[in-house]
Specification:
- This protein has four domains: 96 residues, 3-Layer(aba) Sandwich (Rossmann fold); 104 residues, ANL, C-terminal domain (GMP Synthetase, Chain A, domain 3), CATH 3.30.300.30; 86 residues, Non-ribosomal Peptide Synthetase Peptidyl Carrier Protein, Chain A; 366 residues, 3-Layer(aba) Sandwich (Rossmann fold), CATH 3.40.50.720.
- A seven-stranded parallel sheet has the order 18-17-16-19-20-22-26, sandwiched between helices. Strands 1-2-3-4-5 form a five-stranded mixed sheet, with helices on one face.
- Strand 16, helix 17 and strand 17 form a beta-alpha-beta unit.
- Helix 2 packs across helix 3.
- The chain is globular.
- It is of the alpha/beta class.
- It holds the Pfam family AMP-binding.
């Protein structure tokens, strides 16, 4: 009907493509030229097909004048394809309108030939005459400009409802309470709730964000995310080589969610097909700035994407595509080399591969050649499967490998080295490429689009505060402390996973608190460009508290969440120089070698830039916090070198935070909980089984250092509210420990052990563990395990038992003397 209406009202002939030519981009582009077609209206996927696989010369000589895109999101890749066509007399119009409002309600002509046309968000246009557009919250209340909500449309051509479906009609077609007197007089009193999410821009144009519910929203490994986020990252990471990407969830036929994995199907842009597409795709996965659970286990190149009858990418058809299999071996091959790509593996690697094969998704293993460098997590594994692999290794080889070592050596070669000895197998670990800390902390160029000078002044005390990690252990207390401050009028809690579905604590229902769904690993932390602009445009201070606090994962695994999120936050605060409070860890102090420490062997509230983490990526959590600090320091130096206004920066370093509500896998919480249960503290500094041992200078000068979560939160908020606008030159970065509420010298524990009837005095523990006994770490860990301590914590402490210097626990349980002040 739409096609007939256009033809009749414009007086132009309507060309109906013969059935045998439909879906053939070469034939269709030649029809456009031969039949003097001037106007087309189809989906971005169909246009992509024409521009990449059609007859380019036919299009260039054609009379084609207007290309209207609708029905799907117009991506920057399709816009770039129009630009590459270089047809200067062709207008490209992005349009939007559900059929429930009778065809098209929004449209905009794109300046696709300009250099600025590659912006990430392409508007779907301004409201057309006789329509009205609203962006509403869950209570159907209007939202301000830049805030994402449900798109609702009113006006002359809104349908009366769905024929024969009164319930669905009642849900989607509602009374337009915002109708003007003119609209009411004309009878335009119905508003259609589209089920689409979007936001209005200040110029009145509308931006589409996503469907409110749909087949691209999934939950994997307990994490909810949108497959379209993964697709957008694939296209961006390919730097123009990939035209389209569709990610689907596979596996789980056995009823187990742990056997599910992601598969990406991609089509390459014209002239950009790599010489080795499979190798290109494998490398692309490794480069994706996403958490492990969001990375596809397999990328499958397609010549072109299957389309529906309405020329949209057919996700259902892609979901049904069979996955490619690796070439099979001859029947004479033995069981250890059932596929040709296993021939080059050593015997220990083949043995390890068989264990992988028993646990990992078969489709991924069949489709991906397994080599020494193949990563367990990249092949569909996760932490739960890794724990099962640990058990399988013990059952098969009678070797107990600490879980932390499997995390660190998560490649096939690295794991094989663990069972056969480093001398026989070259350990190819995930961290085999030494970390270049200079490169990892390299600051981004200073943005050119800085705010006006008048917008660089912020309210003090701050009224509008942005907080990450608000649902975490420390974050909940920081939020509570902020709400006690009379000056605080608004707290925007961002990057909250499953914000709309999870049961949040009472503080989140305070009218001053505004929660935004997102994830640290997602682009822009999961914020739409409009929400990001609005939130950081009004912020007076930002507290970046969120992090993946895992002492088992390597630096490489933690970097997307812990380091890249800090880089993203920095890019968002830089234009207005919004004061930034970065919550690091006192664990960075242990990186400072004993000979470089100050008075009493301590580390003051100063930069630790000169003491870099291990280059192998171990000590992952502390390494990510060091990298975050160093990135901020280098960003500040870059600003000053360019004679730019500095960024007000605070770096907060809490020690072991304790209190109610800590995670069951939190290391220090477990040590305290089971020390109370056992009435004994673990001796971290060595094993009593070796009386000749000598504790290292560093170990004997280490401390257990605790701070209550409320004390730490109060201290952070005091810096934000009371000290945020004063103290020190603006170019100075202020460092602050939040520590020392309870301190237990490890020397005292070791001395008590050597006296035969060990106990810790109230003076040594400041009343926290009065009269407790002490036990060697190995014995304490086994007793705590029997008492119910979390298996992951047991694995970490067990790994530390075999670590001569207990370096695994440095910065996690043990700290050097933390000296307040710049000493």
């Amino acid at each position: 009907m739409f096609q007939l209406l256009l033809a009749v009202t414009s007086g132009a002939p309507l060309y109906i493509v013969p059935r045998h030519l439909r879906g053939d981009p070469l034939a269709l582009t030649r029809v456009i030229a031969a039949e003097n077609i001037t106007f087309t209206c189809t989906t971005p996927s169909e246009y992509s097909s024409w521009l990449h696989s059609g007859d380019r010369s036919a299009l260039l000589r054609s009379q084609w004048q207007k290309a209207v895109s609708c029905g799907e999101t117009l991506t920057t890749a399709v816009q770039a394809a129009f630009r590459n066509l270089s047809k200067s007399d062709l207008s490209v119009i992005n349009a939007y309108g559900p059929c429930e409002v009778t065809f098209v309600s929004h449209g905009i002509e794109l300046d696709y030939m300009s250099d600025s046309a590659q912006e990430s968000a392409i508007p779907i246009g301004k409201t057309l005459p006789n329509f009205s557009t609203y962006v509403l919250d869950e209570g159907l209340r209007p939202l301000p400009v830049g805030v994402v909500g449900q798109i609702a449309i009113g006006g002359a051509s809104v349908a009366q409802g769905y024929l024969g479906q009164p319930k669905l009609t009642h849900q989607s077609f509602v009374v337009n309470t915002f109708a003007t007197e003119r609209d009411i007089a004309k009878g335009w009193t119905t508003m259609y709730l589209t089920g689409d999410r979007g936001a209005l821009r200040s110029d009145g144009s509308l931006l589409w964000a996503s469907r409110m519910t749909g087949q691209t929203q999934i939950k994997l490994r307990g994490m909810r995310f949108d497959l379209q986020d993964v697709e957008a990252n694939l296209i961006a990471a390919a730097k123009g080589a990939i035209a389209d990407a569709v990610v689907s969830l596979r596996g789980g036929e056995d009823g187990l969610s742990e056997s599910q994995f992601l598969v990406a199907h991609v089509s390459f842009a014209t002239g950009r097909v790599p010489q080795d597409p499979e190798a290109f795709c494998r490398n692309l996965v490794a480069e994706l700035p996403l958490s492990a659970h969001m990375k596809p286990s397999l990328i499958v190149p397609l010549r072109e994407m299957p389309l529906t009858i309405s020329s949209k990418i057919d996700r259902s058809a892609i979901q049904q595509l069979s996955l490619p299999s690796a070439p099979a071996a001859t029947e004479e091959s033995d069981v250890l080399s059932t596929t040709l790509h296993l021939y080059h593996l050593s015997e220990p690697e083949r043995q390890m591969y068989l264990l992988w094969q028993s646990l990992l998704p078969a489709e991924v293993l069949r489709s991906n050649p397994i080599v020494s460098q193949s990563d367990f997590f990249g092949a569909g594994g996760d932490s739960l499967l890794l724990a099962r692999l640990q058990t399988a290794i013990k059952d098969k080889f009678n070797i107990n490998i600490p879980l932390i070592k499997l995390f660190d050596t998560s490649t096939l070669g690295g794991m094989a080295a663990q069972i056969d000895g480093a001398a026989t197998v070259a350990a190819v670990t995930q961290s085999s490429k030494l970390v270049d800390w200079q490169e990892q902390t390299k600051p981004a160029p200073v943005p050119v689009n800085e705010a006006d000078e008048s917008d660089l002044d912020h309210e003090h005390p701050p009224r509008n505060i942005v907080l990450t990690g608000a649902t975490g252990f420390l974050g909940r207390s920081i939020l509570g402390q902020l709400l006690t401050q009379p000056s605080v009028q608004r707290v925007d809690c961002i990057a909250v996973r499953d914000a709309s579905t999870r049961d949040l604590p009472p503080n989140f229902h305070d009218p001053r608190v505004h929660v935004y769904d997102g994830d640290l690993s997602r682009p822009n932390l999961g914020l739409s460009p409009f929400n990001a602009s609005a939130i950081f445009g009004r912020a007076d201070a930002v507290i970046h508290n969120a992090a993946d606090v895992s002492f088992l994962k390597s630096y490489t695994s933690l970097r997307p969440v812990n380091v890249e999120s800090t880089m993203t936050i920095t890019s968002l605060v830089l234009p207005r120089r919004t004061p930034l409070h970065f919550v690091s860890t006192a664990g960075v102090a242990h990186l400072v070698p004993p000979q470089s420490r100050g008075q009493l062997g301590g580390v003051g509230e100063v930069s630790v830039a000169g003491s870099v983490p291990p280059q192998d990526g171990s000590d992952g959590y502390v390494a990510t916090k060091w990298a975050g600090e160093r990135f901020l320091e280098r960003t500040q130096s870059l600003l000053l070198a360019d004679d730019k206004r500095p960024l007000p920066l605070w770096i907060h370093r809490p020690s072991s935070v304790m209190g109610e509500g800590a995670s069951e896998t939190d290391l220090m919480t477990n040590v305290l909980k089971y020390s109370i249960a056992l009435q004994a503290l673990p001796i971290i500094g060595g094993s009593s089984s070796n009386p000749q041992r000598g504790a290292s200078t560093e170990t004997s000068e280490s401390f257990l250092d605790f701070v209550d979560v409320e004390t730490a939160a109060r201290s952070v908020v005091r810096c934000v509210v009371a000290e945020g606008g004063a103290g020190g030159a603006p170019e100075q970065i202020r460092y602050s420990y939040h520590s020392g509420e309870y301190i237990i010298p490890l020397q005292a524990l070791m001395a008590a052990e050597s006296e035969g009837d060990p106990s810790v005095t109230a003076t040594q523990a400041q009343g926290l563990v009065d009269g407790f006994g002490v036990l060697p770490l190995a014995e304490w860990t086994q007793r705590a395990k029997a008492a119910g301590m979390n298996d992951l914590v047991v694995a970490l402490l067990t790994g530390a038992v075999g670590d001569a210097g207990n370096t695994l626990l440095d910065g996690q349980i043990m700290f050097p003397r933390l000296l307040k002040g710049a000493i």
